[in-house]
Write a structure and sequence with these properties.
76% helix; mainly alpha
């Protein structure tokens, strides 16, 4: 019954996990939105599901690149930074990416960026992994930045 003792009310951990989650959202959004915008602007005929899968993959890649760069700036070696960025937040990044793209699909039909859908996608992308990031930080002291 260890989970009953878990403390979900630590403001410092919520703040730290929010900061970590924001970095992850930024990294994922760069690749994700960049991919969707590319297909939206070029109007290359490609299936919506294909664009969204490609956007998720590119979002994961850009997030790992950004997190690796942040960790290198914190005196990690390149290899350790890359391993940490790849492994520590994969569940967080996947859940974020899937929910951002699902939100886009539900609200616009998919693979369409508009002035009103982007803030909603970013909010959903932030809120989805934030409790997981809090739990992991509180329970194990593990975070990605």
């Amino acid at each position: 019954m260890e989970d009953q003792k878990f403390n979900w009310s630590c403001k410092a951990t919520w703040k730290k996990s929010a900061k970590n989650t924001m970095w992850c959202v930024l990294g994922c959004a760069i690749g994700d939105f960049g991919t969707i915008l590319f297909f939206q602007l070029t109007q290359i005929p490609f299936p919506i599901l294909g664009i969204m899968i490609l956007a998720i993959i590119n979002g994961l890649i850009t997030s790992i690149i950004l997190e690796t760069f942040i960790l290198i700036r914190q005196n990690f070696t390149f290899i350790n930074a890359l391993k940490t960025a790849s492994g520590m937040s994969l569940i967080s990044m996947l859940s974020m990416e899937i929910m951002m793209n699902l939100t886009d699909y539900i609200l616009t039909g998919g693979a369409i960026l508009t002035w009103w859908v982007v803030p909603i996608m970013l909010t959903v992308g932030f809120l989805t992994p934030w409790p997981y990031n809090y739990w992991r930080l509180k329970k194990f002291g593990i975070n990605c930045h």
